[in-house]
Amino acid sequence: MEGLWKSDPNDIITQQHYGDVILEFKNNNQLIYTIHEEDKEQKTFMTYEVQGNFLITDQPSLPQKEQTEFSFNEKETVLTLTE
Hints:
Helix content: under 10%
CATH class: Mainly Beta
Oligomer: single chain
């Protein structure tokens, strides 16, 4: 999961739910969640862990673990998050 993942600008449902975002997963379990808006960008620094097909995130400044199911396509080039 390590690396940079960008929301698909052609996926209308993703854009409605998440907007134009980049998820940067670092090898030290750090996650940088960047939201791009018209005139600014907002970064949230989080931690993450993977348990099976679930991504568990926590924002240290507002502690609360959140769990999101995920999957990859067969080439592991597309990451899909499911609420």
